[in-house]
Amino acid sequence: MAQSLAQSDHGLRIEDCATALGVSRATAYRALKTVAPSSPAAPVPVPRAPKNVPRALSPTERKALLDLMNSERFMDQPPREIFASLLSEGAYHASVSTMYRLLRQLGQCRERRSQRAPARYQAPAVRAEKPNEVWVWDITRLPGPRPGVWFYVYVILDLFSRYVVGWLVAEHENAAHAEHLFAATLLRHGIAPGSLCVHSDRGAPMTASLLQDTFIDHGIAPSFSRPQVSNDNPHAEASFRTMKGQPDFPKRFPSQVEARRWLEDYVDWYNHAHHHVALALFTPAEVFLGTFAAVLEKRQAAMDAMWHRHPERFPHGRPRVAAPPSFVAIDPDGVHAHGEDWHDTSPLNPLSACGRRARKPSPNAQCLLKF
Questions:
Q1: Reduced to 3 states, what is the DSSP secondary structure of residue 152?
Q2: Which of the listed residues 143, 161, 196, 202 has the most CB atoms within 10 Å of its CB?
Q3: What pTM, to 2 d.p., does this model score?
Q4: Cβ distance 222 to 350 under 8 Å?
Q5: Do 163 and 285 meet the contact criterion of CB atoms below 8 Å apart?
Q6: Under 8 Å CB-to-CB from 68, ≥6 apart: which residues?
Q7: Residues 274, 261, 368, 161: what is their CA dihedral angle, to the nearest 10 degrees?
Q8: How confident is the model over 52-62, as pLDDT tens digits?
Q9: Order of strands, edge to edge, in the sheet holding 164-170?
Q10: DSSP designation for 57
């Protein structure tokens, strides 16, 4: 078709040719583009001579200015400093932009310091298929008795079941409290070395060498969010929203003891009475302890009884009660993209020395631990 169009009489319109060939006009135009033009090749453009700009520096002036900027006096000074120094002495050679342009043409205008290229952080990809396989944790603030006073809540969640495996209320946010909480929580749940991944953001307590050393001692694989990405730790953030959205959440906590008392009741409700939407309305404790199967049978029996009594209310047939998901992942697309390497983490060297180890809190430390 393209050859027929190219060999057709030049007096015919493309629309008439396309109609005769039984194709659309767009197809005819597209076919013509694929045919090499029969006309001779266009002449190679000849570069034009540079314009004679009256404002430009003469070669002698350019050389003198370059020698001056590269002299021992100004060789380590930027053009603005050179311009200001010469102008204060009553000498004007060229504008600042002209100085920059001359230096740029000679490759002498660049950042003096060697700078590291921007780091590229991969999105976290963690996946849990059973309890105590991946934990996520974070720290949030509770309003204290007066403005400017806060209490800090450390919360560790099991990713698969959303079960709160450990929490702590403290007056300060530091790595010592986090290390104390993790050491006690790992001991309580009997976590075997090499069987757990812990995901968090990149806060100072999370990346501190004290906590990373504890993870290394217990064979824990750390995983971190990307810097300045707020949704890389969504499960911990969602749990804080659930906590602070409770109708009895105080406007202010009068003391640390009162904060611990309220958190103790809330965590008990959250683990054993809160029907989690992401868990098919099962409680975190039912999924964490594996007792949801019996509850699932009761729910299915109740739905079957209603279906037998009123089948017209179920136009899609017998209802099926949803079960909790078989796995829970942070960044599911990244998990599948990385295949088996789902403990992939952003660059962080837990073995790097960050100074002297922080001291562990004493039994009289101002923190209240609950697991």
A1: strand
A2: 161
A3: 0.64
A4: yes
A5: yes
A6: 74, 82, 86, 93
A7: 0
A8: 777 888 899 99
A9: 221-224, 197-200, 134-143, 150-158, 164-170, 367-370
A10: P
